[in-house]
Amino acid sequence: MTISLQNRLALTYAIFISLALGVLTLVINIFTGRIFAALIKENIAGKSEEIVRDIEDQYNPLSRGFNAFSIEAMGMNFVHEGYIVSVEDGDGNPIWDARSCDMRQCMDVINAITGRMEGRFSLKGAFQKERYPLVYSGGTVGTVIIETYGPYFYSETETKFLNSVNRLLLIAGVVLTLISISISIALSRAIARPIKKAGEAARRIARAPWGDGGRRPVRIPDRYRTRELAELSRSINELAAELEEAERRQKQLSSDIAHELRTPLTCLQGDIEAMIDGVYKPDRERLESCHEEILRLAGLVRDLNTLAGLEWEAVKLNKTHFDLARLLQTTAEQFRTAAAEKGIKVKLKLRESPVNADYDRLKQVFINLLSNAVKYTGQGSITISVEEYGGSLPPAPALPRDARSFAGQTVELLQPVVLPGKTPKKSGAPGGKSSASPSAGGPPPATPPSAHWEISIADTGIGIPEADLPHIFERLYRSDKSRSRGTGGAGIGLAIAAAIIRAHGGRISAASRAEGRFGEDCGGLRETGTSRGTVFRVIL
Question: What angle do CA 108, 109, 111 make, to 5 degrees?
């Protein structure tokens, strides 16, 4: 059996508040009883003194005796008030005794007081006698004996007062309990309502992540004063937004894959049908065209498999110790010819930066980034830099002889850079197979990796529209919605680069301006002295 959160909260609040009120009422009752008992004791003592004074006033010094008739009248009145009085003269002879005067009346009063105190107030006690001297002109002329229920007793009036107080406390407790139950129900509803909305939204998201019938996004109010409820509502809204974005990406991915496959397949189908119908001769030129389309399809499938393996962590990284600066220099050298043909200067601002990473995978990342930089930059420059991430740079350590030429300087790669044991290449084919590795490029650095590094690749190219920046690392995403082959590839390179960096536990980001002034996150572009371009940052 389950109980709703609202009912559970209401019941919990009601029980807690009722118990608190019950304890409070009990404490008030106990302290009120104690205070009232102390007051009653003072009243009894004061009444006893008053009785003594009244009887002293009945002394006649001329006759050296007391007025017995007056004492009897007063004594019977004292009996009704709960005081059993007897009076003796100076020699101890009885003058008047309430018990002797009216034993029945005295017993009725004694029984009433005893029953009231023991039955109603559960105060066990007995009648106790106190002797008080009767003094006149400094001399003792007699003794009055006052018998009262001890340690104290309540009169009829005082009993009625206590009953009224207890009745008032009971009524107040019942009223406050009803109010607390009402408040508990209201509070439980206020707390349970947003949770119910969150549950309903979660069920709606489970049925249709893109919203109700794909038309209206699932959202719930998140402006609550209770922090946990506000965070829960915001989390549900963020979940809905993420699922909607995932749905959009899935649909876009399906559309993009279909487009990427449709073009080469259409070309293949047209050529093969033309050759079957005899329109084209199956010569070498036609077969090579078909072969190119097949290679294009195979490359697309290979890239998708690589991306899937990286995203599902199915690719094992072959980590070794090497210097990022050497890797970046080697990679930049591959693009020397292509950059020079377009009038692009490649500038390096490097320092020794030891890392423990997969050399070939990182080289694939930097090849993708540099390939894009060269492709989308006209006459201008590309700046590659390495800095320690998270603080000011320490003094640059001594670098290998072949690296000292670019330590802390700007090196324009107008001539090939020759590494030890290597011969210069005649052309740098962007995107080609890397021939450099930790073993081929030289021994690993003696200094083990002890810091994170920030690698920036900034160009002065056409830039990326601001609306496209959040999506450039998505699979098959391209700014050119027509997906023309003349303006780019399949849109997988940056997604692979992002997946490789994430597999290393790093981060990759991009900042760009197609035109205008750069923001603070485009510091690498300010150095280019232009109002447009793109900077990619990789943190390892």
Answer: 65
Using a 10 angstrom Cβ sphere, with 0-12 exposed, 13-18 middle and 19 or more buried, the burial of residue 152 is buried
Sign of CA dihedral 56, 60, 61, 65: negative
CB 241 within 8 A of CB 233: no
Given this model, what pLDDT does residue 108 score? 84
| Closest CA relative to residue 56, chosen from 135, 129, 132 | 135
Which residue has 């009038």 as its token pair?
A: 343
User: What is the arithmetic mean of pLDDT over 147-163?
Assistant: 82
Cα separation of 154 and 142, whole Å?
A: 29
Residues paired with 354 in a beta bridge: 323
Position of tokens 């101890």? Answer: 92
Q: How far apart are CA 492 and CA 15, in angstroms?
A: 62
Specify the DSSP element, H or E, that contains 111: helix 103-115
Q: Is 222 left (phi over 0), alpha (psi -120 to 50) or beta?
A: alpha
For residue 348, give the nearest of 330, 361, 362, 364 by alpha carbon: 330
Angle subtended by helix axes 493-503 and 359-375, to nearest 10: 150
Q: How many CB atoms lie within 10 A of CB 345?
A: 17
**DSSP labels, 373-430:** HHHT--SEEEEEEEEETTSPPPPPPP--TTTGGGBTS-EE-SSPPPPTT----S---T
| Chain centroid offset of residue 424 CA | 57
Query: Do 346 and 482 touch, CB atoms closer than 8 A?
Result: no
**Would you call 354 helix, strand, or coil by DSSP?**
strand
- How far, CA to CA in Å, does 463 sit from each of 366, 468, 489, 515? 18, 10, 17, 8
pLDDT tens-digit series, residues 393-443: 333 333 333 333 333 333 333 333 333 333 434 333 333 333 334 434 443
Report yes or no: 422 and 497 within 8 Å, Cβ to Cβ. Answer: no
| pLDDT tens column, 452-504 | 899 999 998 888 878 777 778 876 665 555 545 544 555 677 888 888 888 88
| Strand 453-459 to 533-539 pairing | antiparallel
Location of structure tokens 């939204």:
201
The predicted model gives 60-76 an average pLDDT of: 86
Average of per-residue pLDDT values in the chain: 75
461 neighbors 377 (Cβ within 8 angstroms)? yes
Q: Indicate left, alpha or beta for 193 from its phi (over 0: left) and psi (-120 to 50: alpha).
A: alpha
Residue carrying the six token digits 């990182």: 362
Provide CB contacts within 8 A for 261, sequence distance 6+.
297, 300
Which candidate, 331, 329, 370, places its Cα nearest to that of 348?
329
